[in-house]
């Protein structure tokens, strides 16, 4: 089967690999759709924290189940599934607190261990989430939505809350979806005219600068140092600031201003217990990610074409298609 390996920053190789070996709790899945995430782009550029090379990328996955352990419940061969790519230790301190998403021993597929940028893949059955209704593209984007779901949940915002989302990439869009679902008054800040237009087409205010406006809830989804530091200034007194994106650097802020406003600063990592809820919301028509996908490539094209993704004007979400030729 084909697998694509990121050997070092800026260097992919297209390789032939043997079919994977199943463990007793594993399902064998055929990868169908792979969402390209900011994490993948940062890893390609050499700027992703918690990352080692070489690595098979791919953690946003829509898959078809080929075989399943006999004792598995709720999933059968042929099912379409989303893969929850977070492999935690259930006995860790964070997991016992109900926060498996930040487990001390967490291994994320495609980041700490090899992911799904290949034809076939083995996945612990407990990390598969099936749907009879969703397409493989929709299932691949559940992980992206989970990041936004968890960030909004962390913020504890409510109806009518004046909310700013910085960055109109897929993670920012995911935050917008769930903030809107709670009835927040959402504004999106992004420097890209194409992305602002995309946001406005979805009925959300989008601006290129903030001026003197201040917000009760601020989410930074850029993973950019300058933006993350500027986010403190956009906070009203008593506001909550959530860092959704992360950067391999130190963030600084002016402490007297932070205390004067009595801000609440939170980080948000991955998602916890969110996949079934998100799948249900998509099935019910409450969330529509179809307009997000505005670029496609084949798995066989990744090694040569991945480097050009950042240069595509107005790119919202790229999806990698895995075909019969990749098995």
Q: In which range does the helix fraction lie?
A: 10-25%
Amino-to-carboxy terminus distance: 4 Å
Strand content: 25-35%
Structural class: alpha/beta
Mass-distribution shape: globular
Q: Give the name of the CATH architecture of the largest domain.
A: Alpha-Beta Complex
- Number of DSSP E strands: 17
CATH superfamily name of the largest domain? Medium-chain alcohol dehydrogenases, catalytic domain
> Could you describe the largest sheet, including whether it forms a barrel?
7 strands, mixed
Rg, rounded, reads 20 Å
What pattern of helices and strands is seen along the backbone?
EEEHEEEHEEEHHEHEHEEHEHEHEHE
Total individual domains: 2
Write structural notes for this entry:
24% of the residues lie in helices and 28% in strands. With 327 residues, the protein is α/β, with parallel strands linked by helices. It has 2 domains: 2-141 and 289-326, Alpha-Beta Complex (Quinone Oxidoreductase, Chain A, domain 1); 146-267, NAD(P)-binding Rossmann-like Domain (Rossmann fold). Strands 3, 4, 5, 8, 9, 16 and 17 form a 7-stranded mixed β-sheet that branches. The chain has a 6-stranded parallel β-sheet with strand order 12-11-10-13-14-15. The longest helix is centred in the middle third of the chain and has 14 residues, at 142-155. The radius of gyration is 20 Å and the shape is globular.
Quick recap of the structure?
With 327 residues, the chain is an alpha/beta fold. It has 10 helices and 17 strands. The mean pLDDT is 96.
């Amino acid at each position: 089967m084909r697998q694509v390996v990121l050997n070092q920053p800026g260097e992919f190789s297209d390789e032939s690999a043997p079919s994977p070996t199943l463990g007793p709790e594993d399902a064998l899945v055929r990868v169908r759709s792979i969402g390209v995430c900011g994490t993948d782009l940062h890893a390609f550029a050499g700027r992703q924290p918690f990352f080692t090379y070489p690595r098979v990328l791919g953690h946003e996955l829509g898959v078809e189940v080929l075989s399943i352990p006999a004792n598995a419940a709720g999933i059968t061969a042929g099912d379409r599934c989303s893969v929850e790519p977070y492999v935690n230790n259930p006995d860790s301190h964070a997991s016992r607190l109900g926060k498996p998403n930040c487990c001390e021993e967490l291994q994320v597929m495609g980041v700490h261990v090899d992911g799904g940028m290949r034809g076939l893949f083995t996945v612990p059955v407990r990390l598969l989430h099936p749907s009879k209704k969703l397409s493989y593209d929709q299932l691949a984007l559940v992980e992206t939505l989970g990041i936004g779901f968890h960030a909004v949940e962390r913020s504890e915002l409510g109806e009518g809350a004046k909310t700013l989302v910085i960055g109109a990439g897929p993670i920012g869009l995911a935050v917008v979806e769930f903030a809107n679902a709670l009835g927040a008054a959402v504004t999106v800040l992004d420097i890209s005219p194409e992305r602002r237009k995309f946001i406005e087409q979805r009925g959300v205010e989008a601006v290129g600068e903030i001026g003197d406006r201040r917000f009760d809830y601020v989410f930074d989804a850029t993973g950019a140092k300058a933006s993350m530091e500027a986010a403190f200034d956009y906070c009203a007194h008593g506001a909550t600031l959530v860092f959704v994106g992360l950067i391999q650097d130190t963030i600084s802020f002016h402490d007297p201003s932070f205390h004067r406003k009595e801000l609440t600063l939170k980080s948000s990592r991955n998602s916890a217990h969110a996949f079934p809820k998100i799948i249900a919301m998509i099935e019910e028509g409450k969330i529509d990610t179809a307009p997000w996908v505005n670029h496609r490539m084949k798995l066989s094209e990744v090694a040569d074409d991945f480097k050009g993704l950042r240069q595509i004007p107005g790119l919202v979400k790229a999806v990698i298609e895995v075909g019969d030729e990749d098995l």
